[in-house]
């Protein structure tokens, strides 16, 4: 993810001429060789293996946090205390309490924050939001979303920090489902109530250093929930990190009384729309291919059909960051918005443990 941020920082002023000019002052990574090489390749002025050096560098205004989840809280609190704006990868923290502490610190600091929910910037998603607002599918009453990948589907994959609550926090919930919740919140409004189940598909994994021994997996591979939104609409969310064949299956369908919208991140330039207002003989899903009519596609390329990619979403996110810092855009999602997302995933863990419905 550090590479994605650096690529976006390098691209943003070329793609978006209205954004304040960015300077790359310092790259920090404990891995000295790789870090030094990246710092040079991406044009950072300085490199350090000690991340606290960025805090005392007066030329640094914004700190990107792209380290493993367990380091986000310490780094974000230190950056805010040093008077730096914070652009942090998701999830905010390992626990809901820690995410809450980060949101309070951000509010008190008066500094700006942004969290890496890059999928929200996709012009196809913004188009879905516009279509819903304009009533293209009528009264919206149901959201069904899935975020599946297969990076932990293989039972032979060794045990790692990702398998432990102590080091990773939640499993598929913090890694994948948070993105699904971010999309649900943008398109449907906030989730207010849920009932969930979680499941560990691979309960033990071989230890990399001692292949004759196994380590316990104590966070979930799979999670599913029934949810209610503040509007009264209902939904189903499901996420798995052990779903063979799914590479970035971040997908949803939104049901309304006059139609349906569907999306799949694996085909991120396409939105599918069904309208019950079409003549019966014409009814069917049509594909809206993202193009210059869907901002900010044209800032990347003028030609139709050439398509955007994941790293372009990160460039749009950094543009939001720069415009937000210049006071021209609302920074969304900031630490408070991200806390609302994390309440949902931790609510899902609690619901699964207690067997009860959770009001958020
Ligand atoms: N927004 C997205 O779509 C998305 C996608 C993937 C990952 N992420 C998030 O990005 C974060 C990083 O994930 P990743 O897959 O890039 O992890 P990674 O393990 O590939 O990279 C982490 C980097 O942090 C460095 N690091 C570790 N400890 C450090 C320390 N004490 N000081 C300085 N550097 C240190 C490592 O050397 C490494 O370069 C996670 O929070 C993850 O959830 C977000």
Overview of the molecule:
With 360 residues, the chain is α/β, with parallel strands linked by helices. The chain has two domains: 2-118, 3-Layer(aba) Sandwich (Rossmann fold), CATH 3.40.50; 121-303 and 332-359, Dihydrodipicolinate Reductase, domain 2, CATH 3.30.360.10. Helix content is 34%, strand content 23%. The protein is built from ten helices and 16 strands. Strand 13 (259-264) and strand 14 (270-275) form a beta hairpin. The relative contact order is 0.17. Nicotinamide-adenine-dinucleotide binds at residues 1-2, 28-31, 51, 66-69, 71, 89-90, 116, 118.
Features:
Rossmann fold; 10 helices; nine-stranded mixed sheet; globular; Dihydrodipicolinate Reductase, domain 2; alpha/beta; 360 residues; 23% strand; three-stranded parallel sheet; binds nicotinamide-adenine-dinucleotide; single chain; 2 domains
Brief summary:
The protein has 360 residues and is of the alpha/beta class. It has helices spanning 2-15, 32-42, 72-81, 96-109, 123-133, 165-168, 172-188, 297-300, 310-325, 335-354; strands at 26-28, 46-48, 62-65, 85-88, 113-115, 140-148, 191-199, 204-206, 214-216, 222-229, 234-240, 249-256, 259-264, 270-275, 286-289, 358-359. The site of nicotinamide-adenine-dinucleotide has 16 residues, from loops.
């Amino acid at each position: 993810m550090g590479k994605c941020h650096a690529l976006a920082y390098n691209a943003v002023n070329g793609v978006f001429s209205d954004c304040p000019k960015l300077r790359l002052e310092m790259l920090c990574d404990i891995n000295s060789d790789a870090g030094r090489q990246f710092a040079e390749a991406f044009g950072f002025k300085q490199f350090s293996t000690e991340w606290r050096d960025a805090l005392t560098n007066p030329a640094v205004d914004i700190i990107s946090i792209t380290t493993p989840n367990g380091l986000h809280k310490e780094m974000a609190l230190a950056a805010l205390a040093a008077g730096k704006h914070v652009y942090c990868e998701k999830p905010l923290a390992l626990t809901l309490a820690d995410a809450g502490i980060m949101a309070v610190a951000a509010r008190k600091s008066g500094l700006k924050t942004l969290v890496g929910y890059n999928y929200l910037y996709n012009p196809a998603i913004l188009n879905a939001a516009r279509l819903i607002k304009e009533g293209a599918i009528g009264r919206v009453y149901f959201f069904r979303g899935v975020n599946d990948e297969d990076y932990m589907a293989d039972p032979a994959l060794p045990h790692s920090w990702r398998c432990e609550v102590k080091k990773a926090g939640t499993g598929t919930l913090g890694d994948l489902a948070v993105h699904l919740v971010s999309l649900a919140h943008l398109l449907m409004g906030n989730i207010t109530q849920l009932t969930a189940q979680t499941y560990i598909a691979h309960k033990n994994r071989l230890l990399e250093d001692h292949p004759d021994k196994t380590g316990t997996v104590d966070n979930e591979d799979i999670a599913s929930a029934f949810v209610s939104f503040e509007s009264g609409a209902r939904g189903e969310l499901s996420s798995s990190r052990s779903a063979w064949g799914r590479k970035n299956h971040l997908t949803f369908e939104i049901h309304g009384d006059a139609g349906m919208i569907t999306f799949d991140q694996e085909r991120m330039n396409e939105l599918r729309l069904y309208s019950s207002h079409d003549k019966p003989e014409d009814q069917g899903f049509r594909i809206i291919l993202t193009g210059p009519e869907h901002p900010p596609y044209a800032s990347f390329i003028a030609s139709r059909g050439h398509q955007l990619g994941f790293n372009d979403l990160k460039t749009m996110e950094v543009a939001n960051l720069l415009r937000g810092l210049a006071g021209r855009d609302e920074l969304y999602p900031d630490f408070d918005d991200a806390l609302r997302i994390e309440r949902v995933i931790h609510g899902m863990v609690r619901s699964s443990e207690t067997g009860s419905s959770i009001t958020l």
